[in-house]
Amino acid sequence: MLIDGRKISSEIKVELKEEIEKLKNEKGRIPGLATIIIGKDKASQIYVGSKVKTCSEIGIQSFLYELAEDIEEKEVLKLIEELNIRSEVDAILVQLPLPKQISEKKIMNTIIPSKDVDCFSNENIGRMFLNPNTDIRPCTPAGILELLSRYSVKLEGKKVVILGRSNIVGKPIAIMLISSGATVTVCNSKTVDLEKIIKKADILISAIGKSKFIKKEMIKENAIIIDVGINRVDGKITGDVDFDDVIDKVSMITPVPGGVGPMTIAMLLKNTVNMYRRN
Ligand code: GUN
Predict the structure, then answer these.
(1) Is 248 helix (H, G, I), strand (E, B) or coil?
(2) Same domain for 160 and 195?
(3) How many structural domains is the chain composed of?
(4) What is the reported pTM?
(5) Is position 118 annotated as part of the catalytic site?
(6) What percent of the chain has pLDDT over 70?
(7) Backbone angles phi, psi at 190, to 5 degrees
């Protein structure tokens, strides 16, 4: 069975739009998301364009800041300080990757935690570590959990194998799954006997960025596969999993595109609305 991220994200957008309709009379304004993009990275421009478009569809106001590639770090920090105190801005997103003169750590920890919509700051990551049911969670991991929940996948007692240990996906989703009662193994490119470990997974989450790396011989019969990979090969987007090769062996799988990707944006909007409700 296909896990349809496009369909679920559309349902979430409808829910959020209704919630905004209800809240805006009480608040006297609509939610606001400020997005900062630095430089001309093509993929970043596509992501940001898509985020801005989706915001307008559901009634979130976008504040878009397109900054030059060679901007000084202190200018960006100054802009963030201004956005931190602007009351109509509920949430702030700084698109990654950043040019090399700008410290990602410094940027992420200058955004006030109550507006840190990506949940990348030390404080918000720490809060999520201690309470994974908090309403502000990293977007891609939260999107994956939402998909599993809406497809009624039980996590308690399941063996989950995660490929990749990034701060954006691998590490936070491991924390969330541990709290849900799953037995979690996090692998990386140096993992010994990787294939043996993958073969034991009831649920496999791949976020390594290697096109079509996972083949049917590697997975367990009836495994659930979550493919976080977005790989550009000859102008086409492919996942980490060889979809056509594994499809007859899995019980559920997310396609690429149309699986986890749309859920990341849906969760970004959900975090924005949660911040608006609190603000
Ligand atoms: N670049 C790629 N993915 C992301 C994301 O989830 N958030 C931000 N801010 N930048 C990204």
Answers:
(1) coil
(2) yes
(3) 2
(4) 0.96
(5) yes
(6) 100
(7) -95, 0
Q: Which residue puts its alpha carbon closest to atom 8 of ligand 1? A: 95
Rounded distance between C-alpha atoms, residue 100 and residue 69, angstroms: 9
120 token code pair: 């990348």
The bridge status of strand 236-238 relative to strand 231-233 is antiparallel
The CATH number of residue 251's host domain is 3.40.50.720
The answer to whether the beta carbons of residues 106 and 77 sit under 8 Å apart is: yes
Looking at the CA of residue 93, tell me the nearest atom of ligand 1.
9
Residue indicated by tokens 């490119």: 189
Residue 85's H or E segment, with its range, is helix 73-85
Distance 95 CA to ligand 1 centre (A): 5
Q: pLDDT tens across 149-201, in order?
A: 999 999 999 999 999 999 999 999 999 999 999 999 999 999 999 999 999 99
If you measure from the C-alpha of residue 96 to the centroid of ligand 1, how many angstroms do you get, rounded to a whole number? 5
Which protein residues touch ligand 1 with a CB less than 6 Å away?
Answer: 93-96, 118, 139, 264
Full residue range of the structural domain in which residue 71 is found: 28-112
Name the active-site residue from 4, 116, 118, 240: 118
For residue 200, indicate whether it is catalytic.
no
